[in-house]
Amino acid sequence: MLQSAARLSVAPMMDWTDRHCRYFHRLMSRRALLYTEMVTSAALVRGGARRLLDFDAAEHPVALQLGGSDPAELAQATRMGADEGYDEVNLNVGCPSDRVQSGTFGAVLMRHPDVVAECAAAMIAACNVEITVKCRIGVDDQAPEDVLPDFLEKVRAAGVRRVTIHARKAWLQGLSPKENRDVPPLDYPLVARMKAVFPELHISVNGGIGSLDAACGFLDQGLDGVMIGRAAYHDPAGVLLDADRLIWGDASPLSAPEEAVEAMLPYIDRHVAAGGKLHQVTRHMLGAFSGRPGARAWRRILSEGAHRPGADARLVREALAAVTGVGVESAA
Ligand SMILES: Cc1cc2nc3c(=O)[nH]c(=O)nc-3n(C[C@H](O)[C@H](O)[C@H](O)COP(=O)(O)O)c2cc1C
User: Fold this and answer.
1) pTM for the full predicted model
2) Using one digit for the tens of pLDDT, what is the confidence trace for 226-236?
3) In the chain, domain spans
4) Which member of 21, 95, 119, 135 is catalytic?
5) Which residues form the active site (predicted)?
6) Which fold has domain 2-248?
7) How remote is the CA of residue 219 from the centroid of ligand 1, in Å?
8) Domain 257-331 adopts which CATH fold?
């Protein structure tokens, strides 16, 4: 079932793919695999990040992404994730940020495939949920053509059956994490060649994929899955609303972003009633009408109003009315 869900996934994105974001995305696709933000195994094991594991049952299938490089600690964090009910635990071997480099994990682990294999083996031994890896094609001066097959062979031998490859290097010196998502060139053909070399591995491609059409193109070429990050966040309706139909041949759960917004209202009511802030949810909904009429008014009303004390679902109704042009006066 997860193999099928992984045909399309929404990437792990720190500060973006929190539980509110995932709940919103799930309304638009019942099938796509959703990833959490990265959580470090150290933070989980020390207990400080326990609440980051919380998620809503509606989010399944949902994967927890861990960052770390200590096998025992990762095993313990994996167990915590499995106990919490995550469907998959993913190891981050792609994040280039300084903070992460200092802890010897993330993309720098592309230099240490044996450590990654040891971590993956410990995670696999720790629980019954599937363990996956998200990696780059290499870092710095590495030759991806040489290091990527070696890396994949080692994680495969450790028992990993599914990997996602962000099809560009991370340059660990001199580029910001943001630049590291755009500047190093993409090499999709290399990822496709890895599928030919490792036919038994489930391989998802990631990086710069901007639409569902593009995703379908990769699946048609023989890749097993496509992971979309920024495009899914900035234009969730464009990427997810038709995904169930186009990728899995199911009916789409909703036909328009307006319906997804309506469906968020009870969730927002619950969140605010429990003491949460409106903007914590609506900040992930700003792109709901991306490229559609009313998108600007929608963003403006929510951006300006959602931080105000006492803001609640009425503001979302007001913004929605501005988009649909219905009941603007009464809502205003
Ligand atoms: C705001 C932001 C935060 C990210 N955080 C993570 C993360 O926690 N773990 C991870 O593996 N990748 C992270 N990434 C990288 C994405 O998962 C993805 O690999 C990258 O954005 C390329 O895919 P895209 O071009 O479809 O966005 C992040 C990307 C963004 C934009």
Assistant:
1) 0.96
2) 999 999 999 99
3) 2-248, 257-331
4) 95
5) 95 (proton donor)
6) TIM Barrel (3.20.20)
7) 21
8) Four Helix Bundle (Hemerythrin (Met), subunit A) (1.20.120)
